[in-house]
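Hello, quick one for you while I still have it in my head. I'm working through a protein record and want to make sense of it properly. Would you mind checking whether the tokens look sensible for this chain? I owe you a coffee for this, so here goes:
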Amino acid sequence: MTNALKTSCMVCAILMCAAFLSSSIGYMHIPRNIALAIEALNLSPFVLIALLALFYVVLGFFLDGISIIVMSLPITLPIVFAAGFDPIWFGIFLVIMIELGLMTPPVGFNLFVIQSISGEPIHRVAAYATPFFLLMGLAALLMVVFPQIALWLPAALG
């Protein structure tokens, strides 16, 4: 029972700190300024997606998934629309990028949760998570190159 209590308290503390950091970063308009800087570069669509992928993975180092979506999506979605990407595709891509950020060794939020549950040192958890990170990165790359992968099921459901 004490392990469950410790894990719950740790996750709660991390979420509280992430919420505070999210509010602070939002107050300083950092995501908005980054998105405006990306838009001002007039990049090709695939370079834009690569920069947005990097942007979301880096945000995943510091924030939880909901905070990332709430803070950045109102700014990045119009940029993605203007580049001609499908919004359903971008939503799926966004979820994958956020999860990549949350499991990025050695600072991803999910790694600390797993470390707390398993009791293993964080470097060991990060080492075990690295192949999954690479596979998820490969899946994201395949989805960028072949967008039909993400759009097949929504198209089939009609």
